[in-house]
## 1
Amino acid sequence: MIIQEVIDLIEDFAPTKYAEDFDNVGLLVGDSSAEVSSALITLDTLEATVEEAIKKNCNLIISFHPIIFSGLKKLTGKNYVERTVLKAIKNDIAIYAIHTALDNQYKGVNDMICEKLGLKNRQILIPRKDSIKKLTTFIPSKDTDKVREALFAAGAGSIGNYDHCSFNIQGKGSFRGNEESNPVVGEKGMVHFEEESQISITFPSHLESKILKNLFDAHPYEEVAYEISSLENKNQHLGMGMIGELESETDEEAFLKHLKDTFKSGCVRHSKLLKKPIKKVAVLGGSGAFAITNAKAVGADIFITADLKYHDFYKAEEKLVLADIGHYESEQFTKNLLYSFLSKKISSFALILGDTNTNPIHYL
């Protein structure tokens, strides 16, 4: 396989279109047409990670965090970012990062946290807006099934736990072709009326080009009439954070100790304990202070995240417990998620789970 084929698999699972605007995802270093020998899957790409890739004969690093986050104006090796990139280039090692595209996936970073905690009834904490579109098109009645199935095959018509969803209306369309036209039905220069179906079908926005290709390939008309609109609906299977429930209520202190043990945290910083049982749990891997209000709004008993600042803890307002388990600790299982997914898709070369500890924080 070439690198681009691996990228296509990853982005089918976690489309980079849904990465946050501030992020830098995708192929950061390397040639997408190069053949893959082996791939190292890791949380971070550092000099030590590149060294591991060299020792294990990997020419592709699949990383959660991007080593290049803000722009690089020089490559002189003066800092750890430049040294890492230079080492990768010198050794013909490509670097790919997925970051917030995976954060926003239903089966992504936060689902892994929920899985480790055994949470049930999981839902997205902050559902993504502006990610659902609607296609409306008009098709000769006899060709409706063919075109509809082509749209379904491209991923249209999936809503939550349902697929093959569409709305259909029968009617009569009219048109007249000029001398340059080549009508499938009717004659040039003559007004023609045709029994047609109007299909309305929703689809995730990242599939738009694929949806349109299938529409044009399957549609019999020389000129295809269609319109696409963006919907205000929130996407319940895409977005930041997750909320779930424990099998049974548990004591606050007992749960915090369980949290520390499960994620092997050097410490768990938390807000004031409320002397109430923990049942409903909100999580957001990485820096999640921005979601405190959302966690309170859904009635969470505790919100688990990382990188909380001093004043963030005041925002608990005795409505829930805030628990900071550490940035690395909250995302450490992400590489396992990527490894598990790709292992089911790839058998033509070795996938290697990186064992370099890239946590920059240490505890006494």
## 2
Amino acid sequence: MGQLTGIRVVDLTQFLPGPMMTLMMADQGAEVIKVEPAAGDPAREQAPFEAGQSVWFRNLNRGKKSVVLDLKSVEGKAALWALIDEADVLVEGFRPGVMARLGFDAATVRAKKPRLIYCSISAFGQQGALAHHPAHDMAVQALAGFLSVNDGPDGTPVVPGAASADMAAGLTALSAVLMALIGRERTGEGAAIDCAMFDSLLPWCAHTAGGAIAGGESPKSSSQRSLGGAAFYQVYETADSKHICLGGREMKFARNLLTAFGRADLIAHADRPAGEQDELISFLQTTFASRTRDKWVTWFADKDVAFAPVLDFREALEQPHVAERELWVEADGAHHLAPAIRFAGTAWQPREAPELGRG
């Protein structure tokens, strides 16, 4: 039994934001019925593959059921109405207007079933100047300002390593649906949720873009404490062309590290404004370039400093910490990333991802 056992979800989403959101519900016991076109969710065809399925697809769709429907046909529409009649939640990720053309917009569906929680996930929302603009994650990050500070030393923006807009939308949509489920217990009414990737990501800049939020200057990475302008929130290359990072700007960490290096004279530099710590950054660059990454890991073992080696994903997954917390597990020949939400006293075991059209 999971926290969401008894909740039925009709999931019309593909790729990443919607499937990630409904995966978290399925992992907590919700019955998620994934409605797919005849060709299936495109994620099914994304390499690499393991145990006969895409690793991406398996890790976003385990525990769900798959139903193939042609939503443009009379039969497909009737089948979807039958699913909706038994559902608590409907999640869709089409461009704005598509569900209305199919006859399943929020107003029409909720008029027939007021208790339904209807969640739309899109790039820019159901209304507004950008509502119909095509976009995946990076374009949303670009328009929201985030790509401008995802830059290298020369200030050129680079492709981000995390699909932050996609994931922000999935988490926001999940939160909204769970709030609506709680509200329905009190009022008996469902809700219509307009979840935009852009809207979901924008609040994530509150700690870095304060000046712009207040109507002033936009942040520049080279002069922002959390974006590369501070010595103790910085990435450094090591002797073996790998990297380590310092990830805590508190002065106690500066005192601990610089005292250990015999450079207490530089402690005050760590308290200077971001963008004015070049002398300290230069010293640390030279120092960290003198040993390999693994030797620095050993050296830092007894130091109270917010330090970490920069690991690739395989190194990250093979850490003892991951094994201890059972975050990377193998079942039936396939590997899974465990859900971040796990309740004390409950065991989690990955379920199979559905083959196309199979419950």
